[in-house]
Design a protein that fits this description.
The complex is a heterodimer of chains A (269) and B (315). Chain A is mainly alpha-helical and 269 residues long. Chain A is built from ten helices and no strands. Classes of the chains: A mainly alpha (269), B mainly alpha (315).
Chain lengths: 269, 315
Amino acid sequence: MKRGGSLTGLAGLIVAVLVVALVVLAPVLAPHGEAELVGEVWAPPSADTWLGTDNLGRDLLSRLLYGGRITLVIALAATSLAMAIGCTSGFVAAISGGWIDMLLARAVDAVMAIPTLIFALVLLSVLGTSNPILIGTIACLASTRVFRLSRAVAGNIVALEYFEAARLRGERLPWLMVYEVLPNALPPLTAEFGLRLCANFLFIAALSFLGLGIQPPLADWGGMVRDNAAAISYGGLAPLIPAAAIGVFAIAINLVVDWSLAHQAGQRG
Amino acid sequence: MTRLVLQRVSLGFLTIFLVSVLIFAGTEILPGDVATAVLGQSATPDAVEAMRRALGLHDPAVVRYFRWLGAFVSGNLGTSLTTGRPVGADLWVRLENTFLLAGVAAAIAVPLALLLGITTAIFRDTLYDRLANVIALAAISLPEFFIGYLLILLFSVQMGWLPSLATVSPGMGLGERLATIALPVVTLVLAVLAYMMRMTRTAVLDVMARPYVEMAILKGVPPARLVLQHALPNALAPIIQVVAFNLAYLVVGVVLVEVVFVYPGIGQYLVDAVAKRDVTVVQACGLVFAATYVGLNVLADILVILANPRLRYAR
């Protein structure tokens, strides 16, 4: 069981690293430019265009390679920001306690009572869709879950003697957060980072698919599914390829996170 | 018990109230206002001023919030900023379509998930169990639109059995309507089935590890009876929670699926409104979605109370 778990984890890691490497090296690897018209609309795969062409006659493989960049960068940026906001507020809530804790916890409860996608749509309808706004919106909504986890984890640490000692020593809040709580909270938070990255990645793909995420002419995987959706009526595979890329990457990250969680549980037990 | 249930219900109403505040506040964070958003940058100051007066935008936000909420509760959902049509009329027709889609999906997914979850728990570690788990793990990670387009390709383009677009019209009979929405229903079922099944399996197995079940095994209770009569009643509470959670997820998943199949539901309505920045429609749809979501969670809480004798007979 344990051996099998680490095998799938390794497979996930290899696939994830491979996807990231392909996407990072897009300018070197891509046979054509991101917006270059190379042939007929929805041409079948050929020696020149390995995966065929898209709805405007652009090379699907090249767009897939370039498209992964923006999707991944935005997912990474949003997740990092969400972790920063969520951890800071979660630690503050756990260490301060009292009304600050109460206020933050209730506010997060209220936000979490609205389905994330719906709340994101409400916000984007007013703010419009630019990449910084996309990152900010997703980060804020994702930070609610990070807040809950980091508050719970920090809550356990705050009750320990060494933390009490630091508090009695008169250390200030920033020191307590960075040097006392953070090191011990790191393992569950890294797993959370993976989970959030996967969720945010799928979320951005969904928003772009709805036409409300990353805007053209930038290529991105969710948007490519949307652009090529009509090809399906002619039996074309064009929308399925980017959709499959999204799925493969999400599964890979999930496998790595599963393995890391099992590993942590094994260490503790 | 009545007190507990009433508590949940009032808490639900409080949550919906808070949610309405959040949704209203969410549409207020822009420095400009609805008038400039609708009329655009090039509008004359006079035109903007007239629109502001017509919409009552000069009043403080609190006054406008309660006016909006009051109108909403009494059934007046306002008029769409882009089409000028009353939101209520459009919304109800679409809500009916969405509830049909989600309802049929739930009616299939819930019993199927329970059946699969319980049987995999009974035949634990057999090939059947492993196979079901691997497929479930893959299905959880795949985006809905991938499943949706794959189904379209297989069943409507390759085999020609079912229509690829779920265009329903008011005059359709129920049978015809069900055939039209078959593919979106299957997509939704696949999207929620896997998670529900896995959690049901976990909940049943969790109870199976308890001493009283061991006792039942030792006295020779047959496996099926053991799971159904001894383990299941105690696993009911977590299962109800999971089912409710996934039905709530269905509410959101329906947005993507409606767009894939161009189905005239409330999800499509919301997405179109967001693209056109039609704030009135977005507010109304957002509140309806959120209220459904909260409502399902409250319902789950109540069912959990009813399923637990200790809570059922509590003073």
